[in-house]
Amino acid sequence: MARTTGSHSDITRPKIRAAALRLFARHGFAAVSMRALATEVGVQAGALYNYTPDKQTLLFSLLQDHMNDLLSACDNDPSQSAVDRLRQFVDFHIRFHADRPDEVFISYMELRNLTPENFAEVEALRRQYEDRLETILRDGAAAGDFAIADTKIATLAVIAMLTGVNTWFRAGGRLSLDEVIAQYWDMVRKSVTAG
């Protein structure tokens, strides 16, 4: 199969990943064919298989990389109070995801299209991230800073609330990202504290 003029591995591989991310977010994984992906990238359909064995592997790679990037970037200093750590978590989560709307969308909407093995791997990474928040909530409850009946439910509720910002926030809108983060911190704080 002939290589498209100007096609190089260090250029083409990132273009394939970026195009897949964009197309999966816009049209859904099931609706995007390898041929459509090749057209978007500007290579012949058969050339895609030099970079990925199949569409499933590409989706898994995108989701796995997103979670690994999230885990690598999430830093929480255990010497700080649980309240300060929770405030930092809220700020980090919203800012990290605001810069990655397509990654967030496919990370939630396309999980169902992963094979059971790939789903289990991505789900394990998601649990690691959730565990970081749950540790903060447990520490805060133990210190008497938080009043939480079930830290697992609280963890899932807080993450869902914070991730929901991506469904409506647009830069240049009525509120700045800093203003949104301040309001979300206030809502999260009130949801986990007594009184």
TrEMBL record:
One example GO MF annotation: DNA-binding transcription factor activity
Pfam families for the chain: TetR_C_24 (PF17932), TetR_N (PF00440)
InterPro entries: Homeodomain-like_sf, HTH-type_TetR-like_transc_reg, HTH_TetR, KstR2_TetR_C, Tet_transcr_reg_TetR-rel_C_sf
Gene3D superfamilies named among the record's database cross-references: Tetracycline Repressor, domain 2 (1.10.357.10)
The HTH tetR-type domain, residue ranges: 10-70
Cleaved signal peptide residues: none
PANTHER family reported for this sequence: HTH-TYPE TRANSCRIPTIONAL REGULATOR RUTR, HTH-TYPE TRANSCRIPTIONAL REPRESSOR KSTR2
Protein's UniProt name: HTH-type transcriptional repressor KstR2
Species per Swiss-Prot/TrEMBL record: Sulfitobacter pontiacus
